[in-house]
Amino acid sequence: MSEENKITELIKRKGKFSYSFEVTPDVSEDELFSLKEDPVFFSVTWHAKQHQCKDLNIGPVRIASILRSKQKHVLLHLSCDMLKTDYLDELLTVLQERNICNLFLILGESYDPNSSDFKNTSEVIKYIRSKTGQYFCIGIPGFPGCNDEKLQQIKDKIELGADFIMTQALFDSDGFQTLIKRCEKMEIKVPIIPGIFPFETLQQLNGFINMCKIKVSEDLLTAINDKEKMNRPCSEIIKLLLQELMSKCNTSHFHFFTLNKLRNVEKYIAQIK
Question: Where is the chain membrane-spanning (predicted)?
Answer without folding.
Answer: none
